[in-house]
TrEMBL record:
An annotated GO BP: protein processing
Ribonucleoprotein in keyword set: no
Matches recorded under PANTHER family: FI17812P1-RELATED, ZINC METALLOPROTEASE FAMILY M13 NEPRILYSIN-RELATED
Residue span, Peptidase M13 N-terminal domain: 78-524
Superkingdom to which the source organism belongs: Eukaryota
Annotated family: Belongs to the peptidase M13 family.
Statement: the UniProt record of this protein carries the keyword NAD: no
Signal sequence residues: none
Organism: Agaricus bisporus var. burnettii (strain JB137-S8 / ATCC MYA-4627 / FGSC 10392) (White button mushroom)
Region (Disordered): 277-313
Cofactor requirements of the protein: Zn(2+)
Protein name as annotated: Zincin
Biased composition (Acidic residues): 297-306
Pfam families, per database record: Peptidase_M13 (PF01431), Peptidase_M13_N (PF05649)
Length: 799
């Protein structure tokens, strides 16, 4: 099919990926917006009590009120279009930047956090001499990583040489003696494939399959074992491999990579004295043929007699097509995303190592494992989708070595070309694919400093997090954030008795699980953000140069991979985090039964320790209630209070849950987005069911706010803001709705509907409040309004 094909609702959408835990990245939510204006402003109920009573007129209150007012569009009826009512003002004032495919309040806060980090990355911010020796070492690495990224002159001078160097190593490994026979198993193994795979996997570059270290949720969730899963692919989901325009573009990009790397190696442009620490690139030689943009001929003329390309170019053209076919076959064999995300029982398949070795005989796993120097050899491997493993063995058997080698080269080029100079052909090739998949304006490149701070976070996130926390996370933030979390857990437990599909036995078990949840707020203690020595030691193996970005990235990625493998067959570190402190995100991790809220999220417009309660519980409370509900959603409910996969609900409760889930699936499967080409794409309600159930948990934040309201009011914690002619109840919901403002390119929206388990932002708002009767009561919505449907049509999940 093509990208202009109209999708029908309830169609299956899939994504290729690897998950070993349920995480919620709150900065990846989506939306498309169609503004509908009414003739005049919608009348809003008057505020509760005297508008002049308890109104805060301090500067921070005036600014907060102005921020809320500026985001609203009062020409919209909140009972019909709450998303537009709470966000059209913000969207109008914040048009989508040309260099971004998506931008909203989550991204705006992430940018604000980057600016905090950027200040201490600049040498002018302060002298290293003022810090202790460990912080000096850490900050020097942070600044060197940042400097190497900013140094575009050096990046352009090096050209494609860093990529050529690593590709030469891959090809050298792959072309080692092709095969040998395992005398004990009489299986044919590829020494070259094993060596090449171990080389690129040890540098954080994915291909063929992936390994992760996570708890054995079937026996002991705190015992860390090896998980085997499918890799990510060059296109985001299976659908893209079936769309002719995208497939042709992808093939052209692959062909370009192969041509670049072939030409530069043939021309021997790298100085023979080249070393890993730096590149010396000769400038002689003719300019590569053909020029970019690519390709200059008819892409459909694969094997025409009139093809005038040189023989070598014709061969590369055909080779690129074979690589796409090879990867497409792997993608087709991979597990659909709705199962990967929503069914932890289906993805838990324990194998003895020997069974995995026999199923995929082309890889010498004993040699592969030795590359990562684990403390212990794995005695158990969890396979997320055994059919993929077996299909991969068959695909490898049927694929020529030249194609497999080229696939490994292309995977490396796609992963690493973003760290080359923007004037290189390799950078431009991957950029062309990115622009097509996300809708970013061609040639629009964002601020280099912003990008480079992102590189620093990506590679040295816990180090940057130490300095970020010191500058942003003071006062009562941690204490108040933790209190709100505990209040919402308490409200959840109190609501269990009123849930019509849950019996008493299951409710008691759910309360036990809620009590057992570990709550982490702000920053990790492993590595210990408060301890300069702990952070320095964590990154002691990472070698950073002020001039060599490419090697810096490889070194940092490799360090993380090797640290991960050291945990194999060990006990889970209870203080470790999956995110660094500056991330605008939160997550619930079922095997660890923990809720995690980084300091990066506990910032305005999501949190401020001096806000009134109705805003705190409406904004930050949304994130808390959402993540807490993940402990009891489609996947989370299958883990007990210890993080073990177990049937801990009664059969009748499980049946009741399934009926409620079917309601959610049907509701969201009827929502659609504009594909940007005149068609509609409907949401996959199965794929998004877990996140939608999590969003419906927002009612717990409302209950928690109400439960503490009287005490908070008496203590002055529910003060009013000037100029806001809304009740506190209305402002509670407004605080929630305005979080989700987001503009997005149609291409990006399509990709997310296909691959993201979160619904588009519009439906995260309107779909959620339509299932909360308290919303309709707060805004006095007429019966039958779009967001106040009849009770029998609401999916009221949590009582």
């Amino acid at each position: 099919m093509t990208t202009t094909t109209t999708k029908t609702k309830n169609s299956s959408t899939t994504r290729v990926g690897t998950v070993t835990s349920t995480t919620t990245s709150t900065y990846t939510f989506t939306t498309t917006s169609q503004v509908t204006k009414t003739a005049k402003p919608i009348p809003i109920p008057e505020p509760t009590g005297n508008p002049d009573k308890n109104v805060c007129m301090e500067p921070h209150c005036i600014l907060l009120s102005a921020s809320i007012l500026s985001s609203l569009d009062t020409t919209q009826d909140p009972c019909e279009n709450f998303y537009e009512f709470t966000n059209n003002g913000w969207l109008k004032a914040n048009p989508l930047p040309a260099d971004k495919s998506s931008f909203g309040n989550f991204e705006a806060l992430a940018l604000q956090n980057k600016q905090v980090i950027q200040r201490f990355l600049e040498p002018s911010h302060g002298s290293l001499a003022l810090l202790d020796s460990y912080d000096q070492e850490t900050l020097r690495k942070l600044r060197d990583m940042y400097s190497s990224c900013l140094n575009e002159e050096t990046l352009d001078k090096d050209g494609n040489a860093p990529l050529v160097h690593i590709v030469k190593s891959i090809r050298s490994f792959f072309r080692e003696e092709d095969t040998f026979v395992d005398a004990t198993k009489h299986k044919k193994k590829s020494k070259g494939l094993t060596a090449a795979l171990a080389f690129i996997h040890s540098r954080g570059i994915g291909s063929l399959f992936s390994f992760n270290i996570e708890g054995d949720v079937g026996t002991d969730p705190n015992h860390m074992v090896l998980w085997f899963s499918q890799p990510e692919f060059g296109l985001p989901s299976k659908e893209y491999f079936q769309e002719k325009p995208i497939r042709k573009l992808y093939q052209a990009v692959i062909e370009r990579f192969l041509t670049i790397l072939d030409d530069e190696q043939d021309a021997n442009i790298m100085d023979t004295s080249h070393k890993q620490e730096g590149f010396s690139v000769q400038q002689e030689g003719e300019k590569m043929w053909p020029p970019w943009p690519w390709p200059p001929w008819d892409e459909d003329g694969d094997d025409d007699d009139g093809d005038t390309r040189p023989p070598k170019r014709r061969n590369l053209h055909k080779l690129a097509k074979k690589v796409v076919d090879f990867e497409s076959n792997m993608a087709e064999a991979s597990l659909d995303l709705d199962v990967l995300f929503q069914d932890p029982i289906a993805t838990y398949n324990p194998f003895r190592p020997s069974e995995v070795f026999d199923a995929l005989p082309q890889v010498d796993f004993e040699t592969y494992f030795s590359t990562f120097t684990p403390r212990r050899f794995p005695n158990r491997i969890i396979v997320t989708h055994p059919p993929y493993m077996r299909a991969l063995a068959k695909i490898l058997d049927e694929t020529p070595d030249e194609v497999i080698e080229s696939y490994l080269v292309v995977r490396t080029a796609l992963a690493m070309s973003p760290y080359l100079g923007m004037n290189t052909d390799a950078w431009q090739a991957q950029r062309t694919l990115l622009e097509a998949l996300t809708g970013i304006k061609k040639g629009a490149v964002g601020d280099r400093g912003e990008y480079c701070v992102g590189v620093v976070e990506q590679t040295l996130g816990f180090a940057a997090g130490r300095f970020f926390v010191n500058e942003t996370f003071g006062g009562e933030s941690r204490t108040k954030g933790t209190r709100i979390i505990n209040d919402i857990v308490k409200a959840f437990k109190a609501s269990l008795a009123g849930i019509d599909w849950m019996d008493e036995e299951s409710a008691n078990a759910a309360a036990e699980k809620a009590d057992a949840i570990r709550v982490k707020v702000g920053y990790p203690l492993s590595p210990d953000t408060e301890d300069s020595r702990s952070i320095a030691r964590y990154y002691s193996s990472v070698k950073i140069s002020a001039t060599n970005l490419f090697d810096n990235i490889l070194n940092a990625q490799s360090s993380e991979i090797f640290k991960s493998w050291l945990n194999l067959e060990m006990t889970r570190d209870p203080e470790s985090w999956d995110m660094w402190p500056s991330v605008v995100a939160a997550y619930f991790k079922p095997p660890a039964n923990e809720l995690v809220f980084p300091a990066g999220l506990l910032q305005s417009p999501f949190f401020s320790h001096d806000w009134p309660g109705y805003l705190l519980y409406g904004a930050f409370g949304q994130a808390v209630s959402h993540e807490l509900t993940h402990a009891f959603d489609t996947a989370g409910r299958l883990y007990n209070q210890h993080g073990k996969l177990e049937q801990w609900w009664t059969n009748s409760t499980s049946e009741g849950f399934n009926k409620k889930q079917d309601c959610i699936v049907e509701q969201f499967s009827n929502y659609s987005i504009d594909d940007g080409k005149g068609g509609k794409i409907y949401l996959n309600g199965n794929l998004t069911s877990g996140e939608n159930i999590g969003d419906n948990g927002f009612i717990q934040a409302y209950r928690a706010w109400k439960a503490q309201y009287d005490d908070s009011l008496e203590a002055g914690g529910e003060y009013l803001l000037p100029g806001l002619n809304y009740t506190r109840e209305q402002l509670f919901f407004i605080a929630f709705g305005r979080l989700w403002a987001r503009a997005m390119k149609p291409a990006e929206a399509v990709q997310r509907v296909r691959t993201d388990p979160h619904s588009p932002s519009r439906y995260r708002v309107d779909g959620t409040v339509s299932n909360i009767p308290e919303f309709a009561q707060a805004f006095k919505c007429r019966q039958g309004a779009r967001l106040n449907p009849p009770r029998e049509k609401q999916c009221i999940f949590w009582g």
